[in-house]
Amino acid sequence: MDTSRGIAARGHVDACLAGLKMYSLDPDVVLDVLLRPNAHWQRVVKEKRGKQRVCYSPSDDLRTLQWRLIRILDRSIKFHRGYCRIWDQRYAFTISKPRFPQTGWWKGSSIVANARVHRHSNSALVCDLRHAFQSITTRHIQSFLNRTQPFRIRRRRDASWTYFPESLMWVASRLLTYYGRLRYGAPASPIMFNFMIDRLAVDLATAVNAPLHVNEAALRSTQRILMTVYGDDICFSCKRGAVPESVLWRTETLVRQHGFRMNHAKTLRSGNGALLLPGVVISAHEVRPRDTYLDPLATAIQGGELTQDQANGHLGFLKPFKRPGRRALKRWGPTLYAQLQERAGVTINE
């Protein structure tokens, strides 16, 4: 790190020293992360389904700091509702879900849960955010922290709030990012992404007149647009023959205003009884796995190419589908699902 950045880092750490100690953030470790970021981030290339993805894994010290920051955020952001479990190898704690019902990166959520909201619709539109994590910069996170003011204490004497200096927000935003951007691979990044995209999701639902929480009245309505957010995929559906074009251009406008970019190559429209949503297809109001997933899986089962861990992973993916997922595999062979269970070393009762 150059001299000017080093001086700035030391200045901000010194200015918020009391706040760091109060929130159990070791000032020496914090300063070391700010001065030597390359020593605390490791570049890892992962391959999945023939595609390579660059991830950045934080060191143990930095991971501890990030989890503590996320816990502070969760306790202070009062507009979040609902609870679920987020687990780390060493820490387990309850964290709130955002206002809008995102279904990505929360325990108990899945692409199946995301798709079930749209199962009674006749048409669908899926928009993808391009480089969603990296679109969130240090400046965005610092602005978010300044707006929500998570670092504050309440005096018992007069019930007034005491706020820590902006230097603490400056430090926190740089502990959560690497070279100015939120990185894929850090365990705190998906949670921070959900915090950041919550504002876009609420504004977008308001713009297209979609309900924030889907109920039976919304499902029965023939005019309402239904909307869900699964990770970096924004899904719309309705009972009309096609999702209105105005939904797409409003989405593009708001996405741009919030500092994200659309991946137009992955914008997907579907209808006529077969709705294509992230990772699944809805046919006859039933959520099913896609054939592009089942084809190679059936080949791997028949060829005995799956390890036990891989078989368990596929069973975990198929389990939320229940009967539709099981019936889909029978198209390739009546005993394929049983073979998958046997390879995984588990028995699932019918």
Provide the gyration radius in Å: 23 Å
What average pLDDT do the residues reach? 80
Strand order of the largest sheet: 8-9-5-10
**Beginning-to-end CA distance, first to last residue:** 60 Å
Helix content: 40-55%
Short description:
The protein is built from 14 helices and 13 strands. It has 350 residues and is of the alpha+beta class.
Characterization of the model:
There is one protein chain. With 350 residues, this protein is an alpha+beta fold. It contains 14 helices and 13 strands. It has helices at 3-15, 17-22, 27-35, 60-76, 111-116, 138-148, 166-175, 189-207, 216-220, 245-257, 291-302, 308-318, 323-330, 336-344; strands spanning 41-48, 51-58, 81-87, 92-97, 123-128, 152-154, 161-163, 226-230, 233-238, 268-271, 274-277, 280-283, 286-289. The strands form five sheets. The protein has a four-stranded antiparallel beta sheet with strand order 8-9-5-10, with helices on one face. A three-stranded antiparallel beta sheet has the order 11-12-13. The radius of gyration is 23 Å and the shape is globular.
Which keywords apply here?
4-stranded antiparallel sheet; 350 residues; 19% strand; 14 helices; 3-stranded antiparallel sheet; alpha+beta
